[in-house]
Write a structure and sequence with these properties.
The strands form 2 sheets. The protein has a 7-stranded mixed beta sheet with strand order 1-2-3-7-6-5-4. A 5-stranded antiparallel beta sheet has the order 11-10-9-8-12, with no helix packed on it. It is built from 5 helices and 12 strands. The protein is an alpha+beta fold and 256 residues long. The protein has 2 domains: 4-194, 2-Layer Sandwich (BirA Bifunctional Protein, domain 2); 203-246, SH3 type barrels. The N and C termini lie far apart (50 Å). Mean pLDDT is 90; it is low at 249-256. The longest helix has 22 residues, at 163-184.
Length: 256
């Protein structure tokens, strides 16, 4: 049995899970909350947590991976989350590089992976996989400027899933994908991930950390999981990080 720490309200499940991991919590330990007051997404963004209407959890993992492979955990976790969503909804969810879960073209969940220092010994090395999944949110629960971009499982399917059941399904699928990653390598994970690629072939923009914008067509992730984009001039860019979004209609993309 994997330990589960449940709370009504926490600032951030990832922050609590990291403290537990630093104190030796084993692989598979999870923190779950009905509400987060300081939920976080990638690039320092806030995660909009609707109290009692979503799943907010973090899972501590200690996979048998080289430090160089820890950056790929997010893609493996995303695949596990997508498979879990499919099991719950009977549908086919997609993944937006590197960490978003989509149902019918709208975002219904996201993943934030954080790790220990990668120069730690193998016994102390860990990652924390934080997952936010919209379960029974209505459109009115989201900020007005997001309502055409986000959704929940209940909005898309009419199903109002039980959070405990969703968590167990999600945790088991994610741990299974990481076990496969450790035993069989990254390529089987990547092949399944590519079959769900929401951005592939679409016009997109990447706002880099320095503020510059790469605009072009997504070529999908390479064998190391790094996103490639072909810009309007035919040049191919490797994207390591940044804010990834679909290009807005009738907006002239900006070159790098």
């Amino acid at each position: 049995m994997y330990p589960i720490h449940s709370f009504d309200t926490v600032p951030s499940t990832n922050s609590l899970a990291k403290k537990l991991a630093e104190n030796g919590a084993p692989h598979g330990t999870a923190v779950i909350a009905a509400n987060q007051t300081e939920g976080r997404g990638r690039l320092g963004k806030n995660w909009h947590s609707v109290a009692g209407k979503g799943l907010y959890c973090s899972i501590i993992v200690r996979p048998k991976l080289s430090p160089e492979d820890f950056c790929k955990i997010t893609l493996a976790a995303g695949l596990g989350a997508a498979v879990a969503v499919d099991r719950i909804t009977g549908g086919f969810s997609q993944l937006k590089w590197p960490n978003d879960i989509f149902l019918d073209g709208k975002k219904c969940g996201g993943i934030l992976t954080e790790s220990s220092a990668l120069n730690e010994s193998a016994a102390r090395r860990f990652a924390v996989i934080g997952i936010g999944l919209n379960l029974s949110s209505s459109l009115e629960d989201f900020p007005e400027d997001l309502r055409d971009k986000v959704t929940s499982i209940s909005l898309q399917t009419g199903i109002c899933p039980d959070a405990s059941h969703v968590f167990l399904t999600l945790r088991d699928e994610i741990l299974q994908q990481l076990e496969m990653f450790s035993s069989d390598g990254f390529q089987p994970i990547l092949a399944s991930w590519r079959a769900r690629d929401f951005l592939l072939g679409k016009h997109m923009e990447c706002v880099r950390p320095d503020g510059k914008i790469i605009a072009g067509v997504s070529l999908g992730p390479d064998n190391e999981g790094q996103l490639h984009v072909k810009d309007l001039g035919g040049r191919t860019h490797t994207v390591l990080s940044g804010d990834i979004r679909l290009a807005e209609k009738n907006k002239k993309p900006l070159d790098e």
